[in-house]
Amino acid sequence: MNRKNPYVYYGKKILIFLLSVLILSVVVFYVARLAPGDPLVSYYGDRVEKMSVAERQWAEENLGLNDPIHVQYMRWLQNALKGNFGISFKYKTDVLEVIGGRLVNTLILGGVGFVLIFVLALGLGILCAWHEEKWLDKLICKVGTILSCIPEFWLSLVLILIFAIYLRWLPSSGAYSIGKANNIFDRILHLILPMTIVVWNHLWYYAYMIRNKLLEEVRAEYVLLAKSKGLDKKSILFRHCLRNIIPSYLSIMAISVPHILGGTYIIETVFSYPGIGTLSYESARYQDYNLLMLLCILSGAVVILCNIIAQTINEHIDPRMRGNEVIETSEVTEIG
């Protein structure tokens, strides 16, 4: 097997990532500025309606909105390369500070939810594979399929109605109560409902995937050989089958980040959870260009990076997936 220089291989990955982010920035910049609406409303509020033509021209010049779009983009790109992403029109402060205040909340909700999804999915998939075609496996498959078909938006409203309004056990919105930002218990209470939806909405999809991959391994030829040697079911499933699917499972984890991230954004909006999702909605609604640009680029960069990581893992699992790599097979295996 002839492998190319790893520096060249990973250098191409980095180049693809940077070019993808650059193209994304161009698309988002042009789409945002060509979309209908008035960005001055985000900055000046209702005062825009009382502005004269001269005042409006001054306001647009002050915010750099009177130049052609390509000139605006080049100016934004030059400043962005220096770490200056501008100020938020709505919050009148640096966009990095605005995002920094919300990013932690999204990382907690999305990060903890991500870990729970894949830990529980792995356990549920193993449980189903262990009891294949038995009543427990059939029950979990049917219940999981039904629950995964329930829209997350509708389910969120139902949980709010039951646990926040009727029972009053849990808060229906926010990341913490007023004056309790450092209270861990209060934060956990505010996380329960949105975290439940994040996990519930994705759990069975990945658990079913793990179940099927394990069952494919169980039916492989090497398992028959292991059984003939006297290995028990537990050893075969955990020492061999599970170990063989872990690399592909890591690939699934990487490529699923955008899916889970998108679901987290929606759930944040439903629960008025102060994270990146609600901030993205606000920036798009009020045409807060600088904030919208950075949020889209950050989200897009995460999606692109995770896809590249997943592709890299798959290429290491199966080197034949490398389009520029020449694989020579010179050994003939005899079965006798």
Spell out the key features of this protein.
mainly alpha; 72% helix; disordered C terminus
Integer-rounded radius of gyration: 25 Å
How many strands?
0
Note the quaternary state here.
single chain
What proportion strand?
Answer: under 5%
Order of helices and strands: HHHHHHHHHHHH
Cα distance spanning the termini: 26 Å
Residues in helices, as a percent range: over 70%
Brief write-up:
This protein is 72% helix and 0% strand. It is mainly alpha-helical. Helix 11 (276-285) crosses helix 12 (289-317).
Characterization of this structure:
The protein has 336 residues and is mainly alpha-helical. Helix content is 72%, strand content 0%. It is built from twelve helices and no strands. α5 runs parallel beside α12. The protein starts with 5 loop residues before the first helix and ends in a 19-residue tail after the last helix. The model is unreliable at 324-336 (pLDDT under 50).
SSE map:
Blueprint: H1 6-34, H2 39-44, H3 53-62, H4 69-81, H5 95-130, H6 135-148, H7 152-166, H8 184-218, H9 221-228, H10 233-270, H11 276-285, H12 289-317
Helix pairs in contact: 1-12, 5-6, 5-8, 5-10, 5-12, 6-8, 7-8, 7-10, 8-10, 10-11, 10-12, 11-12
